[in-house]
Design brief:
The complex is a heterotetramer of chains A (499), B (102), C (197) and D (476).
Chain B lengths: L2 H22 L3 H22 L10 H32 L11
Helix pairs in contact in B: 1-2, 2-3
Chain C lengths: L8 H9 L1 H21 L13 H24 L7 H17 L6 H29 L10 H25 L7 H5 L7 H6 L2
Helix pairs in contact in C: 1-2, 2-5, 2-6, 3-4, 4-6, 5-6
Chain D lengths: L2 H18 L4 H26 L2 E4 L10 E4 L1 H24 L6 H20 L3 H19 L5 H32 L4 H7 L4 H17 L9 H7 L2 H27 L5 H24 L3 H17 L1 H5 L5 H33 L10 H4 L1 H15 L5 H15 L3 H25 L14 H16 L4 H9 L5
Antiparallel strand pairs in D: 1-2
Helix pairs in contact in D: 1-2, 1-4, 2-3, 2-4, 3-4, 3-10, 3-14, 3-19, 3-20, 4-5, 5-6, 5-10, 6-8, 6-9, 7-10, 8-10, 9-10, 9-12, 10-12, 10-14, 11-12, 11-18, 12-14, 12-18, 14-16, 14-17, 14-19, 16-18, 16-19, 17-18
Classes of the chains: A mainly alpha (499), B mainly alpha (102), C mainly alpha (197), D mainly alpha (476).
């Protein structure tokens, strides 16, 4: 075992161990807790940096531990896992910063919050680094469990109800996924992720069973990825505190589902083989329907977080759409959207949290003129929304561009129609907010301007959305630079389609 | 019909009677008695199996088993009776209520 | 049968060939007594009334014979039907007579009672472990001493069995009985019956 | 090899000492709780190195003498017993402080331990009967320890069931002895031949053992007994005592009966297991008290154990099914004891365990609730936990043979388990500002529960080692 073998585990432990220690820490040890949180986050970023560099240079990071006779716990880093890990590492750091300020006055236990928060990020990293389906399941279920206490964190009847719904959906999905995996294991004996897929040799004997297994696994993953009709839990889970919604909806949970779909299609079945089996059309159809449905529902929400939640439902399916369209260009679009959507959506949630925390504004109808009171936050919000709509040069534009051209190349022009329709709908539900915030007269009880010399809100609440908005902008502007998300998605695609 | 077969059959019948009474009677002392009858049936059966050896001396192992079994039965009966007394003290009845408040 | 150290085959099976069963069985007996103690805080049978003089007289006459019979049965177990359980049961009959005669136990008796209850099992285990250290196997008696060791175990077991059976009859811990504390002095000492053997 | 004898004798000696010298009872108990696990570890090393161990008690060969027999399976059971009882001993030391029942708890507790050890080491069907009785009586006495009307009735019912079960088992022993002239399991395996008396013996023994291990529909005695006993007792009853009779049934099935018995018997056991899973889970869903919920969860989990019969009758997955079944036994032992201890801490602190009134308990006793949650992960069968490994082995066994309906059952059971666990947690997490009177719980009580829950978790990571141990000496 060398350092390269241990690195994936170390990255996992940088959030797992602080999480465990935080549980044990007494409530009033604020400084210890903050140090642990931030120290772990920074250390994780450093290690991820090493890993990015290494993967680019074809290093193999592979940690194995047998957990069953002939099944191993595998953590390894391929191009795809590094991207996901980097995304969660960066966003964890920012969200932790945000959460520390956000929860300063919470009556609930902050030890519990940050403990589960760290475990939740560890699960996400574990999902990203999982080298086979068993390891994936392990962290996938751990994610469900560790997010539950966060969803019900406030303990109000409403949040308890949301928690119940969340559990019902996710465990139902988890069970379907588990059966799929167990079946696959019994059928072919292997559950490892292999670049390019590993099931093609079995097509003759097991085609029907493999189709059924695919259905089970995708419907299991579809719950977390909020594919319609499995999306019901997501808007309800909005009762969670803002940092939780931000991380949950931008990275951890929905991305775990989307990432799982990507893994199953590319690294278990193999994209070409999935196409041969005819598995992709239903997936694409479900994704397309979800995109439209989510956007339409978002139009009618007045509560800001609810509108964002339905927007998530819609946007995450871009990833599934990119996966479903057979062809490298669409693949790039789908994969890059994993990152882009994460950056943009977390920005929006941070901002929504700022409005709620600073001014007590939860509804869009109360947002008149809010841009004058909180210009920086609103600027970040604007950038995020424009990105969602797909206005160049924001990150969202890159995703949509590749998805569109990918659809055309694959001979599916209707993809363009979906994209256009969805973008129009995005514009329809985001632009009014932006208009209200900047151009309407303030009606709220807050003073029109922040006092001179003071920030509009706590700096730890303000900087994270600014940074993520900036990153979302840069991801679009510098799309061709080395180590940009797009460039990385191309690397992944090249490896997936490698003959 | 040998005498040991008769013992064995009587043993089985006693076991049956004991188990039947255990189920139909609700008074605890009767239940405990029923268990003892059933136990005696098993012991009788065991003793009957001792007659298998060809020689004049019967097999001692079943006797030892029966002795052990009797001691165990005495102990269990004592504990059961003590519990029954206590239940009578606490609840005022020597029967188990069908659906206990849970 | 010679190798077992006793001539009665049933005793040989009980104390030697399948002695382990018997060890656990004495455990069951002690356990039942403990169960009764813990379930029933004070004895069910012992009453506070003063013993009737006739019963006392009967006891005075009977007890020596009971003890004698117990000792004989214990000893004869080596050659013929008999042994610790039978002897213990006979002695227990004496104990039961004592308690039905409402004879309370004195303070000394209650203190040593728990020792007497445990002594049978304790001796058995100690002998079993000691023989294991000497000869390598649990309860593997040295051939020459087998008879003696079996008698020692049986004697100790008889004491315990007698006490425990009496206690099971009384249905509770006499230590907790109200009479044990104030009227202790004028009573028989139940242990004396067994220790005289 | 004298270790097996020591493993039985030490707790037995401790039982006598804790009773005769009550002043040192706690120290004698704790001493035993430390030494016995060590001896089990040494025994395990011996068996891993040299295979199964036989010990002829008294030096007499079978059929004359009794054989103690230890293979990997016995050591695994001894080990889990040592871990669970060892941990609970420390818990009990705090739980019973200043309580009159403490005086009798310790000797009874040591008797129970000794009975379990003797049972797992026995290679003789009559000796097994004696250990069963020792176990049953100590368990009953422990249930009665809390002296409430409910506990006494529950103990009485338990005693009657236990005695009936033992008698039925003893009758089976008598039949086997009459047919084969031996009591040794090893010899019975070689001398047995299919005959009506073998079948009757199996029916009697299985019926008795099923009663004692509370398989649906013979489970009626379990919920009151386990719910009303003092918490350390409930924990060990659910974790170990019901498993002990299951263990005997498995041993007999594996060594003696499997070739002679009609395969549809295995399916019948599976159906009863399915009934237990569904019925137990549904009852747990509507239970109003926490400990009752946990007790019904035990009923359900026992159902999983009996799925071992149909699954192991699938030829190509026989071995996987056995491992899965015993992995269930091990992980359930840790998880369920942790859950009961946590529930016990709740009662200790609040004086009741009515689920409806346990708002916001997560804030008041976070460690216990964390233990509860962690153990629930294993009970539901979510990764990473021992319960998941067991479930995975089962799924694998069922799917390899194409018997997918068992999979559906297992998954339904998991979902129901999720439902009843989270029904409690949605109370436990809810926020209520009201101040409830509570009694501080000693940290040892909270942390032993957590320790056991962590054991269930760790079992999810060490499956290769555990399955190697289970296979040592080829018990399957």
């Amino acid at each position: 075992m060398t350092f390269d073998n241990w690195l994936p585990l170390l990255i996992l432990l940088t959030s797992l161990l602080p999480g465990i220690v935080i549980f044990v820490l007494p409530e009033e040890r604020v400084r210890w807790r903050t140090t642990l949180n931030m120290g772990g986050a920074i250390l994780k970023l450093g290690l991820i940096g090493i890993m990015i560099w290494g993967v680019r240079h074809e290093h193999v990071y592979d940690f194995r531990m047998p957990i069953l006779p002939n099944i191993e716990l595998v953590l390894n880093a391929d191009a795809m896992s590094v991207m996901m890990t980097a995304l969660s590492g960066v966003l964890w750091f920012l969200t932790t910063l945000y959460a520390i300020a956000y929860l300063e006055t919470s009556p609930q236990s902050r030890s519990r919050f940050f403990g589960f928060f760290s475990l939740c990020v560890s699960s996400t990293v574990g999902i990203a680094l999982a080298g086979n389906l068993i390891t994936f399941i392990m962290f996938y279920e751990m994610l469900t469990l560790t997010t539950y206490p966060l969803v019900v964190f406030r303990g109000t009847p409403e949040s308890m109800r949301a928690g119940r719904i969340y559990i019902a959906y996710t465990f139902g999905g988890g069970a379907a996924f588990l059966i799929g995996v167990a079946w696959l294991k019994a059928l072919v004996g292997s559950v490892a992720f292999t670049e390019g897929g590993m099931l093609a040799p079995y097509v003759g004997a097991y085609a029907t069973q493999l189709r059924f297994i695919f259905f089970l696994m995708i419907s299991g993953l579809g719950v977390k990825a909020a594919l319609v009709p499995l999306h019901g839990w997501l808007p309800k889970a909005m009762v969670a505190p803002a940092p939780v919604s931000a991380l949950l909806h931008a990275v951890a949970v929905v991305k775990a589902g989307a990432f799982g779909i990507v893994r199953v299609v590319y690294d278990v079945y193999g994209i070409e083989f999935s196409g041969e089996l005819g598995l992709l059309q239903p997936l694409t159809a479900a994704a397309a329907f979800t995109i439209i449905y989510g956007s339409v529902r978002a139009l009618f929400q007045d509560e800001l977080k609810k509108r964002l939640a339905f927007s998530t439902v819609s946007q995450v399916s871009y990833i599934a759409l990119g996966v479903g369209i057979l062809g490298p260009i669409a693949t790039i679009g789908g994969i890059v959207h994993l990152v882009n959507q994460g950056l943009m959506k977390i920005t929006l949630f941070f901002c929504a949290g700022n409005f709620a925390e600073t001014l007590g504004v939860h509804h869009i109808s109360h947002m008149n003129g809010i841009g004058r009171r909180m210009p920086w936050t609103m600027a970040a919000f604007t950038l995020g929304s424009l990105g969602m709509i797909g206005v160049p040069p924001m990150a969202g534009f890159i995703s949509k561009w590749y998805l569109g051209t990918g659809g055309l190349t694959a001979g599916k022009p209707w993809v363009i129609a979906i994209l256009v329709a969805s973008s129009l709908l995005n514009a329809a539900y985001f632009l009014p907010i932006i208009y209200r915030a900047w151009f309407r007269e303030p009606a709220g009880s807050w003073s029109a301007r922040p006092s001179i010399g003071a920030l509009e809100t706590h700096w730890m609440l303000l900087f994270p959305p600014l940074i993520t908005a900036l990153l979302a902008l840069l991801a679009g502007l510098l799309a061709d630079a080395p180590f940009s998300p797009l460039e990385w998605a191309r690397l992944i695609t090249a490896r997936e389609y490698r003959p | 019909m040998t005498i040991s077969l008769l013992y064995a059959l009587v043993g089985v019948v006693l076991l049956g009677i004991g188990l039947y009474s255990l189920i139909i009677y609700s008074h605890l002392v009767k239940k405990i008695l029923a268990l003892n009858v059933a136990g005696s049936g098993v012991f009788l059966f065991l003793v009957a199996t001792a007659n298998q050896t060809s020689g004049p001396v019967p097999d001692p192992v079943p006797h030892a088993m029966v002795l052990t079994g009797i001691v165990v039965a005495v102990s269990a009966t004592a504990l059961a009776l003590a519990l029954a007394c206590r239940i009578h003290q606490v609840t005022g009845t020597a029967r188990l209520t069908e659906n206990e408040p849970e | 049968m010679a190798i077992s150290g006793v001539e009665n085959p049933v005793t040989a099976v009980l104390l030697n060939f399948r002695g382990y069963d018997t060890l656990l069985e004495i455990g069951v007996l002690l356990l039942a007594a403990l169960g009764v103690f813990s379930a029933v805080p004070s004895p069910v049978i012992l009453s506070k009334s003063t013993p009737s003089p006739i019963l006392i007289l009967l006891l005075r006459l009977l007890l020596p014979f009971i003890v004698l019979a117990g000792g004989y049965i214990l000893w004869i177990g080596k050659y013929a039907p008999g042994g610790a359980f039978q002897a213990g049961a006979i002695l227990a009959a004496g104990g039961i007579l004592l308690s039905t005669a409402a004879v309370p136990f004195n303070r000394f008796a209650t203190k040593t009672m728990s020792i007497a209850m445990g002594i049978g099992l304790l001796t058995f285990i100690v002998v079993a472990l000691a023989t294991m250290m000497v000869r390598g196997n649990f309860l593997q008696y040295p051939v020459a001493q087998a008879g003696t060791l079996i008698l020692v175990i049986e004697a100790a077991a008889t004491i315990s069995i007698a006490i425990i059976l009496t206690i099971l009859f009384i249905g509770g811990n006499p230590e907790e009985s109200p009479t044990a504390k104030d009227e202790g002095d004028k009573a028989f000492i139940i242990e004396r019956d067994n220790t005289t053997k | 090899m004298t270790l097996p004898a020591w493993i039985v004798s030490l707790p037995l000696l401790a039982a006598v000492f804790t009773f005769v010298f009550p002043r040192i009872r706690i120290w004698a108990g704790i001493f035993t709780a430390i030494i016995t696990p060590l001896m089990v570890v040494f025994l395990g090393r011996e068996i891993l190195a040299h295979g199964a161990i036989q010990m002829q008690v008294g030096g007499w060969q079978t059929p004359l003498g009794i054989q103690l027999y230890a293979d990997g399976l016995s050591v695994a059971m001894l080990g889990i017993t040592a871990i669970v009882i060892g941990c609970i001993t420390f818990y009990a030391r705090c739980y019973f402080t200043g309580d009159v029942s403490s005086r009798y708890f310790w000797p009874l507790w040591m008797f129970l331990w000794s009975a379990l050890n003797a049972l797992f080491l026995s290679g003789d069907i009559f000796n097994l009967y004696v250990t069963l009785e020792l176990l049953g009586l100590s368990a009953v006495a422990l249930v009665a320890l809390s002296q409430t009307a409910d506990a006494l009735s529950a103990a009485m019912r338990y005693l009657l069931v236990s005695l009936t079960g033992s008698l039925s088992y003893l009758m089976g022993v008598a039949l086997l002895y009459a047919a084969n002239g031996t009591l040794s399991i090893k010899l019975l395996a070689t001398t047995g031949a299919a005959s009506p008396s073998i079948a009757t013996a199996f029916a009697l023994m299985a019926a008795g053992l099923i009663m004692k291990s509370a398989l649906f529909p013979m489970h009626f005695w379990l919920p009151p007994a386990h719910a009303n006993a003092p918490a350390p007792v409930s924990a060990v009853l659910s974790a170990l005592v019901v498993k002990a009779s299951f263990y005997i049934l498995m041993r007999l099935w594996l060594v003696i009966f499997e070739p002679f018995i009609n395969p549809s018997t295995a399916q019948l056991m599976g159906v009863l297991g399915a009934g237990a899973i569904i019925w137990g889970s549904v009852q747990a869903l509507v239970a109003e008290r926490l400990k009752l919920l946990v007790a019904y969860s035990t009923v359900a989990q026992i159902g999983y154990l009996f799925l071992i019969f149909p699954l192991s009758s699938i030829t190509q997955s026989n071995h996987t099914a056995w491992q899965g079944g015993f992995y269930f036994v091990l992980s359930h032992a840790c998880a369920k004891s942790a859950v009961f201890l946590a529930a016990g801490s709740v009662i200790y602190s609040f004086g009741h365990d009515r689920i409806k009134e346990l708002h916001g308990i997560v804030r008041r006793m976070p460690v216990s609730m964390f233990a509860f949650a962690l153990a629930s992960v294993s009970l539901i069968g979510l990764p990473p936990s021992g319960g998941f490994i067991a479930k995975w082995l089962y799924l694998n066994a069922a799917l390899t043979g194409g018997h997918w309906w068992w999979c559906v059952l297992i998954i339904i059971g998991s979902l129901l388990a999720t439902a009843y666990v989270f029904r409690f947690f949605s109370r436990a997490f809810s926020y209520s500002p009201e101040v409830v009177e509570e009694r501080p719980v000693p940290w040892i009580m909270e942390w032993t529960a957590l320790g056991l829950a962590l054991c269930a978790l760790i079992l999810g990571f060490i499956a290769p080692a555990v399955t190697t141990l289970l296979d040592a000496g080829n018990p399957f």
